[in-house]
Amino acid sequence: MKERLVEKCELHGADVIHFDLEDAVPTEQKSSARVALKTVFPARHPLPGAVRINRLATLEGLQDLLFLTEYALQPMIVILPKAQLARDISLVSTIFPHSLIFAVIETLESYYELRHLSAAPTGLAGVIFGAADFAVAMAIDPQLAARQLQPIKAEICLNARRLGLRAIDSPCFSPHHQTLLQSEIVLARKLGFSGKIAIHPAQIGPINQGFATQETHRVRARHVLSQLDNAPGITTDAEAMLGPPHLKYARHILAQK
């Protein structure tokens, strides 16, 4: 855990600081990573803190939970990798009732479970697509996951919307390839993701810009609102027929930051 990296997140406009105790930490360094977390996690940082613990089906995952509770570290967001949704979220929401829980959909089992949920488990705020592990499970090169797993991404977004959850896209694994990052952002927005994980400070600005509501969309939304306020029901303007769905979408756009 490096204080310098935390400061970079703050300077580059990140929404959340993501502390990873799982994939980013070799097995033999898990214990020291927990100790290091205490020095950079306190609430003196202005950004919300998210802690990605190890899989709860492992000893390391259980030790992560015990560590956080022992030292009274209350993450605003707890990220659950390779989650068994109903079981893991129930446990974590009981221990951290005030935390937002994001489950990483990166196994075939969690993907299947998400599709068959009839309601979101209590405490679950969103899902994150774990492209690398999911690609390997499908015998696909992780570097090709953004394109080859589009149908999976679309269904994750669809089910997240059905359950009232946020859907966050996996990171671009080429931190200095801005063209590739931009293409992934455009695709993620089209599929319905509301954000994207960054793995390098240089990715934060493009991601923020790519997921921000453009002023041209706001102008169009205000126009639709004015048209339907004056003529409730169905009307037309110079571009298209307008009705209640257009009004609802315009209000959605104007509610975005």
UniProtKB/TrEMBL annotation:
PANTHER family: CITRATE LYASE SUBUNIT BETA, LYASE BETA SUBUNIT, PUTATIVE (AFU_ORTHOLOGUE AFUA_4G13030)-RELATED. InterPro entries: Aldolase/citrate-lyase_domain, Citrate_lyase_beta/mcl1/mcl2, Pyrv/PenolPyrv_kinase-like_dom, Pyrv_kinase-like_dom_sf. This is HpcH/HpaI aldolase/citrate lyase family protein. Keywords: Lyase, Magnesium, Metal-binding. Gene3D superfamilies: Phosphoenolpyruvate-binding domains. SUPFAM superfamilies: Phosphoenolpyruvate/pyruvate domain (SSF51621). Pfam families: HpcH_HpaI (PF03328). GO terms for molecular function: lyase activity. Its cofactor is Mg(2+). It comes from Candidatus Sodalis endolongispinus. Residues 3-201 form the HpcH/HpaI aldolase/citrate lyase domain.
